[in-house]
Here is the input.
Amino acid sequence: MPPKTIGLLTSGGDCAGLNAVIRGVVSRATGYGWRVLGIRHGTMGLLRRPYAYEELGPAAASSTVLRLGGTILGTTNKGNPFAFPMPDGTLLNRSAEIAEAVRALGIEALIGVGGDGSFAILRRLAAEGGFNLVGIPKTIDNDIGVTETSVGYDTAVMVATEALDRLQPTAASHDRVMILEVMGRDAGHIALAAGIAGGADVILIPEIPYTVEAVAAHINKIRESGRNFALVIVAESVPAPGGAGVWQQHTGGGQTYGGIGQVLAGAITSHTGAETRVTVLGHVQRGGQPTASDRLIASAFGVHAVDLIAEQKFDRMVAWQNRCVVDVPMAEAIARPSLVDPDGTLVRTARGLGIGLGDGR
Ligand code: F6P
Here is the structure.
């Protein structure tokens, strides 16, 4: 019997820990005697002719790969195959080309490492194209339901925490209010966790509505206590005073959240007279070496995903629950995003520490 062939692709925004996943998958599959085809640049590799892929051998199973940031396979967060943007501006359904590539390459099961958007597309491709799929959750935003953590989140929190560590001495030296804007899309997980770990005075997240007056009152209280600097961390999707989201247009098209830090700086200065400076952390949160925790989760996810294929269990996503790797139906995992619980442990911890959440409580 020829060895089983499985496919592996990384999809959506990159993050630290993707290569640790690849290493976990290749190591485990090699143990079963299977071939792993690494698809380049997510589903884009299956749309190219000739197909863009490589057979992943011992080098991809090495501990050198485990430590690397980014993804050795490349990824994309553009080019939905069901509505693929064509040069003439139209959108074309190219999903049949992907099913044809999966069949032609002899892929018996595909492992997709992605976030909720990628999973929705991959599930539809698998259902319509008749191939088997297993999902591994990755996103710095940590907004995938059913799993307590996703690959990349811990590294992003560590980077944001370190940024606060670095901002604190310069804030104190200049008596300034330092505002750190972090990523997270519609969820405030990175801001909340890093804000607590990094000793922020104010944490603003999209799940808790704020007023500039409450933020200013909190900063003034700190100043009255004799400390003339403050650290504010704000999630990128927090709206401007008045409620409008703040967006960044990118060259070549596309837009993402971005710019709320600068908006807040002006509002805080006009309400408190404080001198403010803004740091937008951006993609620094996604790059670099993964933390030990991300490497562990990624390794457990990679091994378990291959075991699922061995057990012929498909349309499932690996997940982390109660210190264990488990698997759940993909439909359940992407049914709703996981946002910060405004009554949850971390919010209560922040309030207990006297951190202002912008709601005056
Ligand atoms: O979803 C991950 C993420 O990093 C978000 O936190 C952020 O809003 C977005 O991707 C940035 O996307 P891009 O890489 O296209 O700038």
